[in-house]
Each structure stands twice: as C-alpha cells, then as structure tokens.
Design goal:
Number of helices: 16
Helix content: 40-55%
Number of strands: 12
Structural class: alpha/beta
Strand order of the largest sheet: 2-4-5-6
CATH topology: TIM Barrel
CATH superfamily: Aldolase class I
Shape: globular
C-alpha cells in the first residue's frame, strides 16, 4: 500500500488526509526520502540548490502570551524584558547588508504597549535607510495582536504595514494548526482559524509568506496531517505561500522540558511526508538551525530544495539550548558536496546575479576571519 501511495505522489497526484496519515505509520525512512527527493527533482529539475542571507532580529522579547514551549519570551513586568533601540536595530541591519544580506526576519513578542503607528514608524525608518532590504516581518500572532490593541481589521493593519515597508510575512506561531494542541501548549495567542485568516488576508492583498510547523510535543500523527491539510487548503485558495519549513520542538529551558525531543529520524520523516503531501507549495526549506549541519544537509535529499537562511543572528531557538551556527562557506559546501551548485536567492526564490553572490562570499570570508582574529576591523560593504 505504501509503495502505491508514494508512486501516486511522485506522479503528481494528490494524497488524501487518510493517505497522508498512512505515510506517518511507515518507518522505512529511505523509502519515504527517495520518494520525497523524486518529487523535489520533478518540481526543481535545476542543477542548483538555494540559500538566503538574512538575520533574525527580535525587536522585543516582551510578550503577553504564555507559551509553554517558548524559552525566549518575558512577561511585561519581567526585568529581563527588552525593546531594541532604533540605533541598535539599524546597526544590526547595516552589518547584515554588508555581508550580502537582502532581508531581515523581524519578529517580537506580543507587546502590550505599542500602537500600530509605532510599528509603522519602525518599518518606515528601516526602509528609509535600506530601501533595497526586504522586511520579512512579524507573524500571524503579532498581526492578530495588533488588531486587538488598535481595534482595527486585519485588512487595515496589513494594508498599513505593507504601505510602511513590510515586504513578506513569516509563518511563525503556527506550531500545529489544531486548537486542541494550541490550547494545551499556549494561552493568550491566536487560534488556528485566526492564524489562517491573517495569511488569507495578506495573500489577498498580494503579499507572499512562508508556512511553518513545529512538531514533537503534544500533537498526534493525525493532527500533524490536519496541520498540513489546512495549509494545503489555504494554498489552493490563495497561492500565497512560497515555502514550508518544519522543525522539531526544542524543550530545554521551557515549561515543557519533560518532553523527550525527537531526533533526526522523525525530523527527516516529517519533512519527507510534507514534501509528498504539500503538492502546491513550491519550496521546502531545511531546518539546519534546529538539526545541525549534517542533518540539515541530508534534508536536501529528503524533500528540501533550499538550505534556508545563513541566519547571521538567531535568538529564539538558542534560548532553548539548541545552538548551531554555519558560516556561508559551510553552507555552500554542504550544497556543493551533494552535487548541486549553491546559489543565493531572495524571498521570492529569485537568484542573485553571480557577481553579487561572489561579493557576498568574499565579505563573509573576511567577516569570519575578523571573528577568528577577535579584532575590530572595518565593516566590509558590498558595492
């Protein structure tokens, strides 16, 4: 039965939720991976695999939601709460651009204080200094929070943020899009329907976004497939998702530290199933940030066609005790050693020209050398 389901998916036929669930019961990882890789090669016959250079900037860690799985957030009265001042924020972006980055991932908690004009001003300020930069910003929980704080519709909030400079919307805060699961692991946060509504309205406004999945906590296998199915249904409706990224729950330093973390087998299996099931989402990103270099590389033959971001800075997963860092050279080598040409892309999966890419490679080599030398050398700006 499993072989027939895999043949069906490889041929481009849609799997049903029942068939997707059947795949979760299959533990022949090589078989699932081979089929997922065949789908990837059908969708992406090109000789290259891609990556992006960006930086995850958390403008605040203050959050009114209580997520048992999150080690990063601090309550509104916690002395460890912070809000980045504008000079520090712009400095982080300046360094990112100098290293060939064309994008920042800008996210925070659900801060109770700031109105929408504060976020509009932040976006406008960034774009005035870096007009070429894509702001991959906020997330559905943040956007939904803005509607409540400002008593505005989703359409008004997203229209105003887009006009101020928001370029694309990350898929953060999805976890598992089943309310039983969400009710068990978080309080004061957007439910499944509202998460999807944020994405729906953003797509209707012409925006693009990513979709995510954090699994390996309290969800069942059936709920994992329900999550994928809800994403697939919305993609049928709007076509606005550019990529899907999944990762395993990282329990250290969270209120769910008793949960046994899933290993590489389950990660690769789930990603392979996602590639087989999500027939209408064009790109799958590897999650080397949670899995490390070797598994992140292996993900490229288990359904992924993109290595993800260089991630010059990452804080949320690091707070949970999972710290993996890659240099640009390591990322490119991971791709090339599999027989693909590494190519830098933007949020729309459009390739940069090779001259720009070469300058980014050189800038990163010099930056890594500076770090190794622990010196305060000049910042290398791309022409």
């Amino acid at each position: 039965m499993i072989a027939k389901l895999l043949e069906k998916s490889v041929a481009g036929e849609r799997l049903t939720p029942e068939e997707g669930l059947a795949l979760t019961e299959c533990n022949d990882l090589a078989l699932l991976g081979s089929a997922a890789n065949a789908v990837t090669r059908r969708l992406h016959p090109e000789s290259y695999r891609t990556y992006n250079i960006d930086r995850n900037i958390n403008y605040t860690n203050v959050c009114t939601a209580v997520c048992n799985f999150c080690a990063f957030y601090r309550g509104p009265k916690d002395p460890e709460g912070y809000v980045l001042d504008r000079a520090e924020l712009l400095g982080k972006i300046r360094e990112t651009v100098a290293l060939g980055g064309d994008q920042i991932l800008l996210q925070g908690g659900l801060h109770p204080k700031y109105k929408l004009d504060w976020y509009e001003e932040m976006l406008s300020d960034i774009k005035s200094h870096f007009p070429q930069l894509n702001i991959h910003g906020f997330s559905p929980p943040e956007i939904y929070h803005f509607t409540k704080v400002n008593n505005c519709s989703l359409e008004e909030v997203l229209t105003r943020l887009k006009a101020a400079g928001l370029g694309s919307l990350p898929g953060g805060g999805a976890e598992i899009l089943v309310d039983r699961v969400r009710d068990a692991i978080t309080r004061g946060k957007v439910n499944s329907d509202n998460w999807l509504d944020v994405m729906r309205v953003w797509h209707q406004l012409g925006g693009k976004s990513s979709a995510t999945m954090m699994f390996g906590h309290v969800e069942t296998k059936q709920e994992r497939i329900e999550h994928l199915d809800r994403l697939r249904q919305l993609q049928d409706e709007t076509g606005g998702f550019k990529a899907f990224i999944c990762w395993t729950f990282q329990p250290d330093n969270t209120q769910m530290s008793d949960v046994k973390p899933l290993g590489a087998f389950e990660y690769l299996k789930m990603q392979a199933i996602a590639r087989l099931y999500l027939d209408n989402i064009p790109n799958i990103q590897s999650s080397w940030v949670t899995q490390g270099l070797k598994i992140g590389q292996l993900a490229l033959v288990y359904g992924a066609n993109d290595m993800g971001s260089l991630m010059i800075e990452e804080n949320v997963v690091a707070e949970a005790g999972t710290v993996h860092y890659l240099s640009l050279e390591q990322m490119r080598e991971a791709i090339s050693s599999l027989g693909f040409t590494p190519r830098q892309r933007n949020v729309h999966y459009e390739l940069f020209d090779e001259a720009y890419e070469s300058k980014a490679v050189k800038a990163n080599q010099l930056w890594m050398q500076e770090k190794q030398d622990a010196s305060d050398g000049e910042v290398y700006q791309l022409a």
